[in-house]
Design a protein that fits this description.
two-stranded antiparallel sheet, 13 helices, elongated, disordered C terminus
């Protein structure tokens, strides 16, 4: 990345701006590298020259055919990008990157379908597709649901949001596995409502958590990181987006917890996600300015 950063400093490669002048050129994870460039032919050509220089220094070969270009803001990809030989993601296509669905103008239905396909595939493996599934006890299916089916979507739900219907579809898959099936392969009928099953054990349930509550908890975690004095690039980008959407209120909200806890915007955002109970009342009193 030193070669790219040097090209950036010299002005040969133009990066993107994520708000408030924050410039981002690359995103690194293990052996995956993502470049965020201004969509201009000269900019693409100069970035390619830097990559070729990298090849000459290390003797490594960059596989252009395995690379993916995502043109943002284009109805059709520019001709110079088409002629580059790099695979291009078109609008409506879905690609998995670091375990999450990405795409140009990705719809909520596409994100939901990604999760449904993933859970259905795992569910079919857990069923073992023949007689052994019928000998799994209720407790066994419950443990598998808690630690596998319910845990798998957490990572994706940190990034994408779903409607209530989307959460219901995810719940339907888990409910079908917990209830089991008869000798004909048909799902058994529930004897109690699913919301009762999802209650705490002290309240007569089995301790399962609804997907919607899980997603709300992850949103709270995200807000907590924004309010903290963290400095990663993704926090700066998120703050820039919030400031762009909510203007002065967001900038005041993000100055720190002491100043933000009495903000009406923060109150409207936090309280609905805390759920019922003492924790809700405690935070609500703090947000209202009570000691």
């Amino acid at each position: 990345m030193a070669l790219l950063q040097a090209a950036q400093i010299e002005g040969r490669v133009q990066e993107i701006e994520a708000g408030n002048g924050r410039q981002i050129l690359e995103a690194l994870f293990a052996d995956d590298t993502g470049l965020l460039l201004q969509a201009e032919e000269d900019n693409w050509r100069r970035a390619t020259e830097v990559m070729k220089q990298f090849e000459r220094i290390l003797g490594a070969k960059l596989n252009v055919l395995k690379s993916l270009a995502i043109p943002i803001g284009f109805t059709d990809p520019p001709s110079w990008l088409v002629n580059s030989g790099c695979k291009i993601m078109l609008s409506g296509e879905v690609f998995t990157y670091l375990g999450c669905p990405i795409g140009v103008a990705l719809t909520e239905e596409q994100s939901l379908q990604y999760l449904l396909d993933k859970l259905t595939k795992v569910k079919s493996r857990l069923r073992l597709s023949h007689w052994t599934h019928r000998f799994l006890t209720w407790e066994g299916r419950l443990v598998l649901t808690k630690h596998i089916l319910h845990a798998m979507p957490n990572y994706v739900l940190m990034i994408i949001g779903l409607t209530k219907d989307g959460y219901k579809e995810l719940t339907k898959i888990c409910r079908g596995f917990v209830l089991g099936s008869n000798s004909e392969g048909k799902e058994k009928k529930a004897l109690v409502a699913w919301d009762i099953v999802c209650r705490r054990k002290e309240d007569g349930g089995v301790g399962l958590t609804s997907f919607e509550l899980q997603a709300n908890a992850l949103k709270m975690r995200f807000v907590g990181k924004l309010l903290a004095d963290a400095d990663p690039d993704w926090v700066r980008v998120a703050k820039a987006i919030l400031q762009w959407k909510m203007a002065d209120t967001a900038s005041r909200m993000l100055e720190g917890w002491c100043a933000a806890k009495r903000s009406l915007v923060l109150k409207d955002f936090l309280v609905p996600y805390l759920g019922p109970g003492r924790l809700n009342k405690r935070y609500e009193s703090e947000l209202n300015g009570a000691d």
